[in-house]
Amino acid sequence: MAERVGARELLRRVLDGGAWTSWDRPPAEEHSSSYARDLAAARERSGCDEAVLTGEGLLRGRRVAFVVSEFRFLAGSIGLATADRIVAAVERATAEGLPLLAAPSSGGTRMQEGTAAFVQMARITAAVAAHRAAGLPYLVHLRHPTTGGVFASWGSLGHVTAAEPGALIGFLGPRVYEGLYGEPFPPGVQVAENLAAKGLIDAVVGIDDLAEAASRALDVLCGRPPSTPVDLPADLPPDETAWESIERSRRADRPGVRELLRHGAADVTLLSGTGQGEADRGLMLALARFGAAPCVLVGQDRRSQRGGHPLGPAGLRVARRGMR
Fold it and tell me: What's the whole-model pTM score?
């Protein structure tokens, strides 16, 4: 069973020295007596005043902003006050030029607030979209469980998206699906490892590896091209006929994109699929650094292509994700 931790423990183990500065303000109290009792009980149970914590800290020396869910607070559900807190944090991160780390764990929107809570997903999505449009990184770590509107909105917008091992991730939870259709959800479908294989998320990452994985991605995403052109080696191949060139390009032992990354790149973060449920083993997508130059690498994987995985339409859509 994978380890499940709360919001404060995650921050303690991911941020430098376990230290962070809160951006949160106390939520306003304007609810019915029964709902107010639910909120009071949630605060007592979780030790938090809302379903998310926001703020800033250092990640391997880099200043970052964060939004982290606390599932023990009403199943991490999103109400108006929660959405206000998330939107304020995203907008502040954008204004201050900070990369943003999101670690959702939620059953979706808060039933006690009805439609008013559901429409908050659009506000949060718009804030994240503006953050990305400003050229700022948005990294997501999906935790167990992440379902409903949270997964469909700010849980699905990461430049890089990982999930904790064995996490339940999907729009409809298994019990909701069974209630609607009268049969159990197929086993293993909504598990992090399956979503990674299908190209919905990029990787499965445990909490103790999260800081390293996020820092490696940010080293590339926050990097800037070198101020001077990169010099390339001048040892061109000797004169040869056109056919000899074709034969050389077709040699089975010719180095490919995997060798390029292994021997020529640093800070490599492999990405998986389109992020929308398609993957193609004939194309490799990665963040990487070549010398001083950070880049997004889109490369045909000739080894996989020779192994029976020709590049198809899904591969072109994976490439399009990389180009965006």
Answer: 0.89
